[in-house]
C-alpha cells in the first residue's frame, strides 16, 4: 500500500500493489469539499430551510492556510440568497484578504524590505 500526499492539490492518493502491479488506486481531495449545511427550523412552517457555508479553493501555501467561502440560504433545496466573500489567508505571513480570481495557492512572496534609516554604502580604501 502506497499513500501519496500532494500539497498543491491538498489531496491524498492511495495505491495498492500486488506483484508490483497496481490493483487499486483512489484519490481524495479536500480542496473543494461539499457545502456544510445546518437546518433552520421554524415552528409551524413545514418548509425545509437550511443555511450553508461553502468553502472552496482550500490549500496550504507555505506555513499558511488559504480558503474562500460563500454563504447560501436554501428553501426546499433551492438557493434563495448567496453571499460571496473574499478569500482569506492565515498563517506565518499574517492575515490577508485575496480575491477569488487571484491564485492564492501560490507561495507568498518573501521579499524583505530594508529597515527605515538603513543606508547602503561602499567602503573606500586608499592605497
How would you describe this protein?
- There is one protein chain.
- This protein has strands at residues 2-6, 11-18, 21-29, 36-40, 49-59, 64-75, 78-84, 87-91, 94-98.
- With 127 residues, it is an all-beta fold.
- It folds into 2 domains: 1-30, no CATH class; 31-102, no CATH class.
- 6% of the residues are buried.
- Low-pLDDT residue spans: none
In angstroms, what is the radius of gyration?
Answer: 24 Å
Strand content: over 45%
Helix content: under 10%
* Tally of distinct domains: 2
- Summed up, the helix count is 0
The pLDDT mean sits at 83
Cα separation of the termini:
70 Å
Reading the helices and strands in chain order gives EEEEEEEEE
Largest sheet: 6 strands, antiparallel
Structural class: mainly beta
Multimeric organization: single chain
Number of strands: 9
How are the SSEs ordered, and which strands pair?
Layout: E1 2-6, E2 11-18, E3 21-29, E4 36-40, E5 49-59, E6 64-75, E7 78-84, E8 87-91, E9 94-98
Antiparallel strand pairs: 1-2, 2-3, 4-5, 5-6, 6-7, 6-8, 8-9
